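Human: Note token order:
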Amino acid sequence: MGEAWAEVDLKDARTSLDKEIYAVVEDLVKNKGWRLRAQGHKYAVYCPCTEGRANFITLPGTSRNPGNAAKRVKRSASRCPDRHDLMK
């Protein structure tokens, strides 16, 4: 992947994501093995079980309702295509 898709440290995302969204992203990255990458205007999280496939969730930079956006990210992450043990 190119430079634009470089992995990002969680502390870099803390200031630019809403706290509700950041809490979900932090759980995915720290506890479930997802990767946080800079992509587009903000960030995306990539599923750990998609070798060769690009299964990712884009993260809204500024959302109208951060709580609903956080639920959307969590719901999307729970639909991991391989339903691996990390998601349980």
The first helix runs from residue 10 to 14. Residues 15 and 22 are 9 Å apart (CA to CA). The chain has a mean pLDDT of 82. The helical segments are 10-14, 19-32, 66-78.
